[in-house]
Write a structure and sequence with these properties.
Elements: E1 7-12, H1 21-36, E2 41-46, E3 62-66, H2 72-90, E4 94-97, H3 103-113, E5 117-121, H4 132-139, E6 143-146, H5 149-158, H6 185-191, E7 199-203, H7 214-228, E8 233-237, H8 243-252, E9 259-263, H9 270-276, E10 279-282, H10 291-298, E11 303-306, H11 311-314, E12 322-324, H12 329-340, H13 352-363, H14 365-385
Domain Glycosyl transferase family: 188-345
Pfam families: Glyco_transf_4, Glycos_transf_1
Protein name: Glycosyltransferase
Length: 386
Amino acid sequence: MLCDIKKVHIWMPNLFGFKGGIQVYSAYLLQAIQRLLPSAQCEVFLLHDQRHMQPDSVHPNTRFHFSGGLLQPLRNPLYAAQLVAQATLNRPDLIVSTHLNFTPVAQAIKQIANIPYWTVAHGVEAWDIDKPKLKRSLQVADRILPVSNYTRTRLLDEQALQPEQLCTLPNTVDTQRFQIRPKPERLLKKYGFTEDQPIILTVNRLCSTESFKSYDQVLAALPDILRQVPNVQYVIVGKGDDRSRLEQIIQERQLQAHVTLAGFVLDNELCDYYNLCDVFAMPSKLEGFGIVYLEALSCGKPALGGSRDGAVDALQGGKLGALVNPDDSEAIAQMLVQILKREYPLPLMYQPQALRQAVIDAYGFEAFKQTLSVLLTDFAARRAMA
Protein backbone atom coordinates (compact mmCIF):
# COMPACT_ATOMS: atom_id res chain seq x y z
CA MET A 1 0.00 0.00 0.00
CA LEU A 2 2.91 2.35 0.66
CA CYS A 3 3.86 2.02 -2.99
CA ASP A 4 0.77 4.07 -3.81
CA ILE A 5 2.54 7.13 -2.37
CA LYS A 6 4.45 8.37 -5.42
CA LYS A 7 5.41 11.96 -4.59
CA VAL A 8 6.25 13.65 -1.29
CA HIS A 9 7.20 17.28 -0.74
CA ILE A 10 9.22 17.92 2.42
CA TRP A 11 9.75 21.42 3.77
CA MET A 12 12.64 22.16 6.12
CA PRO A 13 14.28 25.28 7.56
CA ASN A 14 17.71 23.79 6.77
CA LEU A 15 19.51 20.48 6.72
CA PHE A 16 23.18 20.77 5.74
CA GLY A 17 24.38 23.82 7.67
CA PHE A 18 23.54 24.37 11.33
CA LYS A 19 22.91 21.10 13.20
CA GLY A 20 20.35 21.90 15.86
CA GLY A 21 17.62 19.59 17.11
CA ILE A 22 15.18 20.41 14.31
CA GLN A 23 17.83 19.85 11.66
CA VAL A 24 18.88 16.49 13.13
CA TYR A 25 15.25 15.39 13.38
CA SER A 26 14.60 16.52 9.79
CA ALA A 27 17.54 14.46 8.55
CA TYR A 28 16.24 11.32 10.26
CA LEU A 29 12.73 11.96 8.97
CA LEU A 30 13.97 12.27 5.39
CA GLN A 31 16.07 9.12 5.75
CA ALA A 32 13.10 7.17 7.11
CA ILE A 33 10.82 8.36 4.29
CA GLN A 34 13.44 7.39 1.71
CA ARG A 35 13.67 3.87 3.16
CA LEU A 36 9.92 3.38 3.60
CA LEU A 37 9.06 4.84 0.18
CA PRO A 38 12.09 3.82 -1.93
CA SER A 39 10.35 4.44 -5.26
CA ALA A 40 8.67 7.72 -4.30
CA GLN A 41 10.00 11.02 -5.59
CA CYS A 42 11.01 13.25 -2.67
CA GLU A 43 11.27 16.97 -3.34
CA VAL A 44 12.99 18.68 -0.40
CA PHE A 45 12.67 22.46 -0.05
CA LEU A 46 15.30 24.12 2.16
CA LEU A 47 14.75 27.68 3.36
CA HIS A 48 18.23 28.61 4.57
CA ASP A 49 20.65 26.15 2.94
CA GLN A 50 22.54 26.92 -0.27
CA ARG A 51 23.28 24.64 -3.20
CA HIS A 52 27.00 24.29 -2.48
CA MET A 53 26.12 22.62 0.87
CA GLN A 54 24.57 19.60 -0.83
CA PRO A 55 26.66 16.44 -0.36
CA ASP A 56 28.03 14.65 -3.41
CA SER A 57 25.98 11.53 -2.76
CA VAL A 58 22.20 11.77 -2.42
CA HIS A 59 19.30 9.35 -2.77
CA PRO A 60 18.49 8.90 -6.50
CA ASN A 61 14.82 9.77 -5.98
CA THR A 62 15.48 12.84 -3.86
CA ARG A 63 15.94 16.36 -5.21
CA PHE A 64 16.83 19.41 -3.14
CA HIS A 65 15.64 22.96 -3.75
CA PHE A 66 17.66 25.74 -2.10
CA SER A 67 16.54 29.23 -1.08
CA GLY A 68 19.49 30.19 1.13
CA GLY A 69 21.10 32.23 -1.65
CA LEU A 70 18.22 34.70 -1.73
CA LEU A 71 18.50 38.04 0.03
CA GLN A 72 17.17 37.80 3.57
CA PRO A 73 14.23 40.25 3.18
CA LEU A 74 13.01 38.32 0.12
CA ARG A 75 13.80 34.79 1.25
CA ASN A 76 10.66 33.92 3.19
CA PRO A 77 8.09 35.24 0.68
CA LEU A 78 9.94 33.75 -2.30
CA TYR A 79 10.32 30.43 -0.50
CA ALA A 80 6.58 30.40 0.21
CA ALA A 81 5.84 31.23 -3.41
CA GLN A 82 8.08 28.37 -4.54
CA LEU A 83 6.27 25.95 -2.22
CA VAL A 84 2.88 26.96 -3.63
CA ALA A 85 4.02 26.86 -7.25
CA GLN A 86 5.78 23.50 -7.00
CA ALA A 87 2.92 21.87 -5.11
CA THR A 88 0.19 23.08 -7.47
CA LEU A 89 2.25 22.06 -10.52
CA ASN A 90 3.58 18.70 -9.30
CA ARG A 91 0.62 17.63 -7.14
CA PRO A 92 2.44 15.59 -4.46
CA ASP A 93 0.48 12.96 -2.58
CA LEU A 94 1.62 14.45 0.72
CA ILE A 95 3.35 17.55 2.07
CA VAL A 96 5.45 17.16 5.23
CA SER A 97 6.67 20.29 7.03
CA THR A 98 9.33 19.88 9.70
CA HIS A 99 8.51 23.27 11.24
CA LEU A 100 5.13 24.61 12.32
CA ASN A 101 5.76 28.07 10.90
CA PHE A 102 5.35 26.74 7.34
CA THR A 103 1.87 25.35 7.93
CA PRO A 104 -0.15 28.44 6.86
CA VAL A 105 1.37 27.96 3.40
CA ALA A 106 0.39 24.28 3.48
CA GLN A 107 -3.16 25.27 4.41
CA ALA A 108 -3.33 27.64 1.43
CA ILE A 109 -2.15 24.84 -0.87
CA LYS A 110 -4.74 22.48 0.58
CA GLN A 111 -7.45 25.02 -0.18
CA ILE A 112 -6.18 25.47 -3.74
CA ALA A 113 -5.26 21.89 -4.68
CA ASN A 114 -6.64 19.67 -1.88
CA ILE A 115 -3.17 18.30 -1.05
CA PRO A 116 -2.95 16.84 2.48
CA TYR A 117 -0.21 17.99 4.82
CA TRP A 118 1.56 16.88 7.97
CA THR A 119 3.62 19.07 10.26
CA VAL A 120 6.12 18.33 13.02
CA ALA A 121 5.81 20.05 16.41
CA HIS A 122 9.08 20.22 18.33
CA GLY A 123 8.99 22.44 21.41
CA VAL A 124 8.77 26.13 22.23
CA GLU A 125 7.51 27.02 18.75
CA ALA A 126 4.48 24.82 19.46
CA TRP A 127 3.74 26.17 22.94
CA ASP A 128 1.51 29.19 23.64
CA ILE A 129 0.68 29.77 19.95
CA ASP A 130 -1.44 32.91 19.52
CA LYS A 131 -1.13 33.73 15.80
CA PRO A 132 -4.57 33.21 14.22
CA LYS A 133 -3.26 31.96 10.85
CA LEU A 134 -0.96 29.44 12.50
CA LYS A 135 -3.70 28.26 14.86
CA ARG A 136 -6.07 27.72 11.94
CA SER A 137 -3.47 25.90 9.85
CA LEU A 138 -2.95 23.44 12.70
CA GLN A 139 -6.67 22.88 13.08
CA VAL A 140 -7.01 21.71 9.48
CA ALA A 141 -3.71 19.78 9.30
CA ASP A 142 -4.16 16.14 8.34
CA ARG A 143 -1.59 15.07 10.89
CA ILE A 144 0.50 16.81 13.55
CA LEU A 145 3.61 14.96 14.71
CA PRO A 146 4.71 16.15 18.16
CA VAL A 147 8.16 14.87 19.07
CA SER A 148 7.08 14.31 22.68
CA ASN A 149 3.96 13.57 24.67
CA TYR A 150 4.71 16.77 26.58
CA THR A 151 4.31 18.87 23.42
CA ARG A 152 1.29 16.80 22.38
CA THR A 153 -0.43 17.48 25.69
CA ARG A 154 0.31 21.18 25.50
CA LEU A 155 -1.08 21.42 21.98
CA LEU A 156 -4.27 19.65 23.03
CA ASP A 157 -4.63 21.86 26.10
CA GLU A 158 -3.89 25.12 24.29
CA GLN A 159 -5.33 24.67 20.79
CA ALA A 160 -8.66 23.57 19.32
CA LEU A 161 -7.33 20.27 17.98
CA GLN A 162 -8.72 16.75 17.76
CA PRO A 163 -6.72 14.08 19.64
CA GLU A 164 -6.66 11.85 16.56
CA GLN A 165 -4.81 14.58 14.64
CA LEU A 166 -1.76 14.27 16.88
CA CYS A 167 0.53 11.23 16.72
CA THR A 168 3.80 11.38 18.63
CA LEU A 169 6.91 10.65 16.56
CA PRO A 170 9.78 10.94 19.07
CA ASN A 171 13.34 11.92 18.32
CA THR A 172 15.81 9.23 17.44
CA VAL A 173 19.57 8.95 17.83
CA ASP A 174 22.51 7.73 15.78
CA THR A 175 23.57 4.77 17.89
CA GLN A 176 26.41 3.98 15.49
CA ARG A 177 27.95 7.37 16.13
CA PHE A 178 27.29 7.53 19.88
CA GLN A 179 28.81 4.45 21.48
CA ILE A 180 30.33 3.41 24.80
CA ARG A 181 34.07 4.04 24.95
CA PRO A 182 36.68 4.66 27.66
CA LYS A 183 37.30 8.20 28.81
CA PRO A 184 39.35 9.77 25.98
CA GLU A 185 43.00 10.24 26.94
CA ARG A 186 43.17 13.22 24.60
CA LEU A 187 40.52 15.15 26.49
CA LEU A 188 41.81 14.11 29.91
CA LYS A 189 45.19 15.50 28.96
CA LYS A 190 43.75 18.60 27.28
CA TYR A 191 41.82 19.67 30.37
CA GLY A 192 44.15 18.27 33.01
CA PHE A 193 41.61 15.80 34.39
CA THR A 194 42.42 12.45 35.96
CA GLU A 195 40.65 9.30 34.80
CA ASP A 196 38.91 8.78 38.14
CA GLN A 197 37.83 12.42 38.50
CA PRO A 198 34.02 12.80 38.49
CA ILE A 199 32.82 14.93 35.58
CA ILE A 200 29.42 16.52 34.97
CA LEU A 201 28.62 17.48 31.37
CA THR A 202 26.08 19.80 29.77
CA VAL A 203 25.71 20.18 25.98
CA ASN A 204 23.62 23.25 25.24
CA ARG A 205 23.73 26.39 23.13
CA LEU A 206 24.80 29.45 25.10
CA CYS A 207 21.92 31.77 24.25
CA SER A 208 21.51 35.03 26.16
CA THR A 209 17.90 35.51 25.04
CA GLU A 210 16.58 32.24 26.46
CA SER A 211 14.60 32.94 29.62
CA PHE A 212 15.86 29.80 31.38
CA LYS A 213 19.33 28.31 31.16
CA SER A 214 20.01 24.81 32.42
CA TYR A 215 23.72 25.44 32.91
CA ASP A 216 22.90 28.30 35.29
CA GLN A 217 21.03 25.82 37.46
CA VAL A 218 23.96 23.39 37.56
CA LEU A 219 26.35 26.24 38.36
CA ALA A 220 24.06 27.29 41.22
CA ALA A 221 24.15 23.72 42.53
CA LEU A 222 27.91 23.29 42.11
CA PRO A 223 29.02 24.73 45.50
CA ASP A 224 26.77 22.21 47.29
CA ILE A 225 28.10 19.43 45.07
CA LEU A 226 31.71 20.42 45.80
CA ARG A 227 31.15 20.14 49.54
CA GLN A 228 30.37 16.45 49.05
CA VAL A 229 32.42 15.67 45.92
CA PRO A 230 35.41 18.05 46.23
CA ASN A 231 37.20 17.07 43.02
CA VAL A 232 34.19 17.28 40.68
CA GLN A 233 34.54 19.05 37.34
CA TYR A 234 31.76 20.64 35.30
CA VAL A 235 32.20 20.81 31.51
CA ILE A 236 29.88 22.91 29.36
CA VAL A 237 29.93 22.25 25.61
CA GLY A 238 28.32 24.84 23.37
CA LYS A 239 28.80 28.23 21.82
CA GLY A 240 26.78 31.43 21.82
CA ASP A 241 26.50 34.99 22.97
CA ASP A 242 26.02 34.05 26.64
CA ARG A 243 29.63 33.00 27.17
CA SER A 244 30.89 36.30 28.57
CA ARG A 245 28.13 36.36 31.18
CA LEU A 246 28.93 32.77 32.09
CA GLU A 247 32.60 33.57 32.51
CA GLN A 248 31.70 36.42 34.84
CA ILE A 249 29.46 34.20 36.98
CA ILE A 250 32.16 31.55 37.22
CA GLN A 251 34.69 34.15 38.33
CA GLU A 252 32.35 35.80 40.85
CA ARG A 253 31.60 32.43 42.45
CA GLN A 254 35.28 31.43 42.33
CA LEU A 255 34.53 28.28 40.37
CA GLN A 256 37.30 28.65 37.80
CA ALA A 257 39.11 25.54 39.04
CA HIS A 258 36.00 23.41 38.60
CA VAL A 259 34.27 24.67 35.44
CA THR A 260 35.44 24.26 31.84
CA LEU A 261 33.78 26.08 28.96
CA ALA A 262 34.70 23.79 26.08
CA GLY A 263 33.02 26.00 23.48
CA PHE A 264 32.01 24.70 20.06
CA VAL A 265 32.73 21.01 19.50
CA LEU A 266 32.71 19.38 16.07
CA ASP A 267 30.04 16.75 15.49
CA ASN A 268 32.63 14.00 15.12
CA GLU A 269 34.14 14.90 18.51
CA LEU A 270 30.93 15.10 20.52
CA CYS A 271 30.88 11.40 21.38
CA ASP A 272 34.25 11.83 23.13
CA TYR A 273 32.76 14.45 25.45
CA TYR A 274 29.87 12.19 26.42
CA ASN A 275 32.35 9.43 27.17
CA LEU A 276 34.46 11.89 29.18
CA CYS A 277 31.66 12.51 31.69
CA ASP A 278 30.21 10.51 34.55
CA VAL A 279 26.79 12.14 34.34
CA PHE A 280 25.04 14.27 31.73
CA ALA A 281 23.01 17.07 33.32
CA MET A 282 20.59 19.42 31.59
CA PRO A 283 17.78 20.41 33.99
CA SER A 284 15.90 22.52 31.45
CA LYS A 285 12.35 23.85 31.06
CA LEU A 286 12.60 24.59 27.33
CA GLU A 287 13.29 21.25 25.68
CA GLY A 288 10.66 19.88 23.32
CA PHE A 289 12.43 16.55 23.69
CA GLY A 290 16.22 16.88 23.94
CA ILE A 291 18.17 14.60 21.62
CA VAL A 292 21.28 15.23 23.74
CA TYR A 293 19.81 13.01 26.46
CA LEU A 294 19.58 10.15 23.96
CA GLU A 295 23.15 10.78 22.81
CA ALA A 296 24.45 10.60 26.38
CA LEU A 297 22.38 7.50 27.18
CA SER A 298 23.57 5.85 23.98
CA CYS A 299 27.10 6.27 25.35
CA GLY A 300 25.97 4.50 28.52
CA LYS A 301 26.02 7.63 30.68
CA PRO A 302 23.55 8.50 33.46
CA ALA A 303 21.43 11.52 32.59
CA LEU A 304 19.55 14.13 34.59
CA GLY A 305 16.81 16.26 33.04
CA GLY A 306 14.09 18.67 34.08
CA SER A 307 10.67 17.43 35.13
CA ARG A 308 8.77 20.19 33.31
CA ASP A 309 9.48 19.70 29.61
CA GLY A 310 10.14 17.08 26.95
CA ALA A 311 12.99 15.56 28.96
CA VAL A 312 10.24 13.60 30.72
CA ASP A 313 9.72 11.79 27.40
CA ALA A 314 13.42 11.38 26.60
CA LEU A 315 14.04 9.81 30.03
CA GLN A 316 10.73 7.88 29.92
CA GLY A 317 9.33 9.43 33.07
CA GLY A 318 12.40 8.43 35.09
CA LYS A 319 12.87 4.91 33.73
CA LEU A 320 15.99 5.89 31.78
CA GLY A 321 17.32 8.71 33.95
CA ALA A 322 16.73 11.16 36.76
CA LEU A 323 14.13 13.94 36.64
CA VAL A 324 14.33 16.96 38.90
CA ASN A 325 12.54 20.25 39.50
CA PRO A 326 14.68 22.54 37.30
CA ASP A 327 14.03 25.52 39.63
CA ASP A 328 15.38 23.74 42.71
CA SER A 329 19.18 24.03 42.81
CA GLU A 330 19.36 22.13 46.12
CA ALA A 331 17.49 19.19 44.61
CA ILE A 332 19.73 19.31 41.54
CA ALA A 333 22.83 19.22 43.77
CA GLN A 334 21.47 16.36 45.88
CA MET A 335 20.52 14.29 42.86
CA LEU A 336 23.85 14.82 41.07
CA VAL A 337 25.74 13.85 44.23
CA GLN A 338 23.63 10.68 44.48
CA ILE A 339 24.38 9.81 40.87
CA LEU A 340 28.11 10.50 41.20
CA LYS A 341 28.28 8.39 44.38
CA ARG A 342 26.31 5.64 42.60
CA GLU A 343 23.54 5.91 45.18
CA TYR A 344 20.66 6.98 42.94
CA PRO A 345 17.89 4.32 43.11
CA LEU A 346 17.92 3.38 39.43
CA PRO A 347 20.30 0.42 38.89
CA LEU A 348 20.05 0.79 35.09
CA MET A 349 22.06 4.03 35.37
CA TYR A 350 25.13 2.04 36.35
CA GLN A 351 24.79 -0.66 33.70
CA PRO A 352 26.12 1.08 30.56
CA GLN A 353 25.38 -1.67 28.05
CA ALA A 354 21.88 -2.27 29.38
CA LEU A 355 21.20 1.49 29.45
CA ARG A 356 22.36 1.80 25.86
CA GLN A 357 20.18 -1.13 24.77
CA ALA A 358 17.14 0.37 26.51
CA VAL A 359 17.64 3.57 24.51
CA ILE A 360 18.04 1.65 21.26
CA ASP A 361 14.84 -0.27 21.95
CA ALA A 362 12.86 2.87 22.74
CA TYR A 363 14.40 5.48 20.46
CA GLY A 364 16.68 3.81 17.93
CA PHE A 365 16.19 4.53 14.24
CA GLU A 366 14.34 1.26 13.67
CA ALA A 367 11.76 2.26 16.28
CA PHE A 368 11.45 5.69 14.67
CA LYS A 369 11.03 4.15 11.22
CA GLN A 370 8.44 1.66 12.47
CA THR A 371 6.30 4.41 14.02
CA LEU A 372 6.48 6.42 10.79
CA SER A 373 5.62 3.29 8.78
CA VAL A 374 2.38 2.85 10.74
CA LEU A 375 1.45 6.49 10.11
CA LEU A 376 2.21 6.31 6.38
CA THR A 377 0.34 3.02 6.02
CA ASP A 378 -2.69 4.55 7.70
CA PHE A 379 -2.42 7.58 5.42
CA ALA A 380 -2.23 5.39 2.30
CA ALA A 381 -5.22 3.30 3.44
CA ARG A 382 -7.38 6.37 4.11
CA ARG A 383 -6.34 7.85 0.78
CA ALA A 384 -7.31 4.66 -1.07
CA MET A 385 -10.75 4.70 0.56
CA ALA A 386 -11.41 8.38 -0.19
